[in-house]
Amino acid sequence: MNDTTSTPLPNTNQAYAEAPAVTSQSRPIRAKSVWVGVVLPLTVAVLLAVAQPFWSSYLSDLVVKIMILSIFALSLHILVGGTGLVSLGHAAYFGLGAYAAVKAAGQDGSNFLVMLGASVGVSGLYALIVGALSLRTKGVYFIMVTLAFAQLAFFVVHDVGYFGGSDGIYLMQRPAIGPLDMENSRTQYFVVLVSLVLVYAFIAMLRHSRFGHALAGIRVNEQRMRAAGFATYGYKLAGFVIAGALAGLAGFLLAARDAVVNPELLAWHHSGEVLLMLILGGVGSLRGAVLGTVTFVLLKELLSTHAVMGNVADHWQLTLGIAIIVLVALLPKGLVGINDKWQKKALVNKYNGQEAISSGANHG
């Protein structure tokens, strides 16, 4: 049956007008939503800021890496969790952002804003080109087209001498603006932390905007959204470009951290890894994107460390694969699903308790 014959979407103003008043039962739910969506992330950010002076250089560098990859994962969340578009080419925007930053720096100096603008602009532009073509396909064809464009970008930077070939290119001087010089590891840490907080807040606001609701509607039923008058192609393309630009931001931060870029950043397995991060954390959840990144990076770090795993560390890809399979099997809804299970169990216990009290009162 054609979905265009289904009941049209309700008028938004009417829906708000007919919405029920806030009751005593809905207040705890709203309070919990504010706690999980706002207070908890801000608390974690403050703790990360306070803890930095007490960490070793290794641990501080590891946290910076996790935060950069969290931005990368959050950018893909716009496509996978927000719009229902599974891309296997997202590493292209990440890598191109890193290359653009290094090329924009030049030999004489590294201007922070110029490098940042180049990274976001180049990645966003390539995402616009890829999205304009790939979004005309669906399903597995869309996945393959995004992968093809990512491989195209990979071989361009790998084979063209301008990009340094397989060895890549070095950043002679890390970006700086005013007192913020990313040659300083502490400055680097806080610039990345602030970037993560801003990206997280931006995507959270985007999800609750009219634009975000339109993307969610497209994910659920694109045909119905089109029948309701939404230009779904334009919405998807805009989301695709935003996701690519934010991946470019992550690439800029990585280039500033490592001071070197190479074609490996655009490799297809990085696109697969960031998709795994979303699956591990829970597709459709901002917290899940960050939790999945933390879990994936720590697992990879742990399983590849000889001091912990001994000779088994030589086969860390195998043990990491087994660990991921086990986690996905045990937690099909990701790490955020654990909290959902606890909430559901608490609600069932509360309901059973209320039923028991009510039954006792009636018998009495």
UniProtKB/TrEMBL annotation:
GO terms, molecular function:
branched-chain amino acid transmembrane transporter activity
Recorded source organism is Comamonas testosteroni
Q: Is Cell membrane one of the keywords UniProt gives this record?
A: yes
The record's subcellular location field reads:
Cell membrane
Q: From which domain of life does this come?
A: Bacteria
Q: How does it sit in the membrane?
A: Multi-pass membrane protein
The answer to keyword Membrane applying to this record is yes
- Recorded GO CC terms: plasma membrane
CDD domains membership: TM_PBP1_LivM_like (cd06581)
Where, by residue number, does the polypeptide cross the bilayer?
34-55, 67-92, 112-133, 140-157, 189-206, 227-254, 274-299, 320-338
Keywords (alphabetical) are: Cell membrane, Membrane, Transmembrane, Transmembrane helix
Name of this chain's protein: Branched-chain amino acid ABC transporter permease
Q: Which InterPro entries match?
A: ABC_transp_permease, LivM-like
